[in-house]
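Notebook entry, structure prediction.
Reason for the run: the old model in the group folder had no record of what sequence produced it. Starting over properly, with the input documented here first.
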Amino acid sequence: MAGEVDHSRFELVFGDDFAGDALDTARWIDHYLPHWTTPERSAARYALNGHGLELLIEADQQAWRPEDGELRVSNLQTGSFSGPAGSSLGQHRHRRDLQVRSPQPSRRLWTPSEGLVEVAARASSDPTCMLAFWLIGFEEASPQESGEVCIAELYGNAIEPDRSQVRLGIKAHHDPNLRDEMTDVTLSLDARDEHSYATEWNSRRVRFFVDDQLVCTVEQGLDYPLQLMIDLFEFPATAERDPANYPKTAHLTAVRGYQPR
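New structure, fully documented this time:
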């Protein structure tokens, strides 16, 4: 059906149920954009319990990058690339004054240029948190190959028992062939429960699904390598933290990646 994910058109090539007692380092890098900061700040906090992976923000966790305020993040990503220390060459250049602090080797654990991605997860309703799933440009071939497919951003302050807002779409960043096209979709679901968030994309079109049902279509696309990023963010108002309010968590049950047959 046109409004549902058609798995028959795809072949599974990447998958993780997080069922073991250690993260699979052949699939995941457990640091958030580590080239822009230092390892102790980019390192993810998480726990594996045999039934999935819990992303954590803990009371003693340092801000990811002091110049970006009090943002904390625990992230898994499927690739890494940067230029040498002191250069401005690196993935996801979110401000002009960025310089590489911790150079990264080129690691392409999974960097598809078209296909289908699905993430099954439970988000946090903490108003300071966001759970996000992105495909971002790998950028090794060109800094213009920096576009982003935002599979879903789930802000805690937009999650209620009977309705939740999902932010999704395309972000151009430094890609001159793309335009920003983001949408907030309100659905009759509680994002604190497990739901599936998926994106099917190619060079012409991107389609977005929640629980296998089509919720949005964008008539532009990307045709270069992308890496998957799964993030739990905290945006605290101040540096002061009450340990009783931690850890803040989001749960991953499964991730699937497919290529066209």
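Summary: The mean pLDDT is 96.
The old model has been moved to the deprecated folder.
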